[in-house]
Specification:
about 290 residues; mainly alpha; Glycerol uptake facilitator protein; 12 helices; about 75% helix
Length: about 290
């Protein structure tokens, strides 16, 4: 074997772009069943990260900053499972746009992947929410865990369109940067390290992730009619408004957040890195072939 085969250095950006294009091709050519099942898993994985996040922060006596930091670290579980175990996450799959820009993925393949992964993510996230609800773990701490989950959901449905949209952009910039950084990694340890900081940053900053909200908001809707949860909720968020915590409020959050996620991930990460790295290389190859 050559020394090159024993190279433990992480991949350079030009190699990362090639790996991203290769991944885009594989994702675009998945069968409907494989794509759908992997998408359900991804939605479930993100929901597990969201549940873990809620469990860890609900009774924290630390400062707001440290609580958010710890919460962000725990939420990283979701993307770690998606990347390492293998799953199809809509927000991360926004990077397939790099394959589309290079002409190796068609717009039909792109839309199929995004549409099926989004639907599967929704089913997986809601399914985990239902399981968590049935488990009754939200009764922990005299229903304070449920109250915290309700508070999180209420805060999301009370965002304005512009707030949700801009936070969606910022969120998926960081999520897709985490996925992008994983293309530099050769080992599981490197991938986990690449994931933790961007995901912790988006969660701690309060940005909005469409798939996570598919868990947070429906779960809050399930809890809002429980009298004991409401009693505990009033003790931690007496001025919070629950009137928007319904289907209309859910869609009012999900639509702008999803649009923001697409812009943040597909355009501000995928297209930008394609223009910076891939386009100059393709242009140089075309000039070389022409000469």
């Amino acid at each position: 074997m050559t020394a090159k085969e024993f190279n433990f250095d992480d991949y350079a950006p030009s190699d990362m772009a090639k790996r991203a294009e290769s991944a885009a091709t594989k994702k675009a050519n998945l069968s409907f069943l494989s794509l759908f099942m992997l998408a359900v898993l991804a939605g479930g994985f993100i929901a597990l990260g969201a549940e873990f996040y809620t469990m860890v922060i609900f009774d924290s006596g630390l400062s707001v900053g440290l609580t958010k930091l710890i919460g962000g670290l725990t939420f990283s579980l979701g993307l770690v499972l998606v990347i390492i175990a293998g799953a199809e996450l809509f927000t991360g799959n926004n990077l397939i746009v790099m394959g589309f820009a290079s002409g190796i993925v068609t717009y039909k393949q792109l839309l199929k992947n995004w549409g099926v992964s989004y639907l599967g993510n929704f089913i997986g996230a809601v399914a985990i929410g239902l399981l968590v609800y049935i488990s009754n773990i939200w009764t922990i701490g005299d229903y304070l865990l449920g109250a915290k989950a309700l508070s999180i959901a209420a805060s999301k449905v009370n965002l304005t369109f512009l707030e949700a949209f801009s936070r969606g952009i910022l969120c998926n910039m960081l999520v897709c940067l985490a996925v992008w950084l994983c293309f530099s990694a050769r080992s599981v340890v490197s991938k986990v390290a690449a994931i933790i900081f961007p995901i912790t940053a988006f969660v701690a900053s309060g940005f909005e992730h469409s798939i996570a909200n598919m868990y947070f908001i429906p779960f809050g809707m399930l809890l809002k009619n429980n009298s004991k949860v409401l009693e505990a909720f009033k003790s931690i968020a007496p001025n919070s408004n629950l009137s928007n915590l319904n289907i209309s409020g859910f869609l009012g959050n999900l639509i702008p957040v999803t649009l923001g996620n697409i812009i943040g991930g597909a355009i501000l990460v995928g297209v930008v890195y394609w223009i910076i790295i891939v386009y100059p290389e393709k242009k140089a190859e075309s000039s070389k072939d022409a000469s």
